Amino acid sequence: MTQPTHIRRDGLGGNGLKSALSLAATGVPVLPLRAGKLPVGNCQACAQNGCGGRPNMRSAGECRCPAPCHGWAAATIDPDVITSRAWARAWREAAAVAYHPGGAGLTVVDLDHAEAVAWARATLPATRTVPSTRGEHWIYRGAMPSANAVRDGVDVKSRMSYVRWLGPGPGAGAITALPDTVRALAMREPAPSRPAPQAVTVSALAGGGQCPHRTPAYLERGIAMAEQCITEARERVHATVYRTFLAVLSAHGRCGCLTDGHVARLFTAAQAKGESPRHCTDAWTNARTKLGL
Predict the structure, then answer these.
(1) Which residues are within 8 A (CB) of 65 and not within 5 positions of it... i.e. 6 or more apart?
(2) CA atoms within 13 A on the CB side of 37
(3) 3-state secondary structure (DSSP) of residue 155
(4) Is this prediction's pTM over 0.70?
């Protein structure tokens, strides 16, 4: 691929863009990092990580920022986005390339010092290892919730997180399946019970109109497709959840067919991708508002 002239002088001398495109071609969502391993800010609210690494949202799934500015959520595999003019300043400022491991179905155990590496070698199943500045990254196949400081010098990076790319070498060893010993690291303290999805009452058609769906299978198929759409999202999870909720409500929101059970299935799929109950509720409410429900 020919490198666009507007980013030919990015902060990594062209190597960052090349690495990003190579990673994206393998299905790994990427984003540029500035010095200090922080996401590049592309708007006033997010400059110098002023947004705290979270999207600057006007409503669920609608970020006001014009380019990558909120860490893992900006990661993409789309080469047209990576080489776009909107990302040009990001690459000019970039000091490193990062990727969203959860979006690629991966988990990285980030080991910050020699003692942490020794602990991993004695405790965790072997997998691909990549040397880092102070320790190693152990990469497993499978995604899970991220958790920092699970023990001294050990972070777990997967969903809703990003990791600096330590290429160009692929590391040593084959990537193995995510073991329960790593999943358990994020559950050292009893997890608080997750709030049940908020009950949503959907009004019937004005004037007592009847359901236009021929069979219950139509609704069931629609809910199943919505669950699949959310589950298969590799990037821009916030936007995918919002658009999916909007589509479900557009088709089924005015006839009274939707039950709390249907909504719970959608919320469960979204939470499995890292969305919080509050974000699910906000996305559902915003979709209802947009449709005037």
Answers:
(1) 42, 43, 45, 46, 55, 56
(2) 9
(3) strand
(4) no
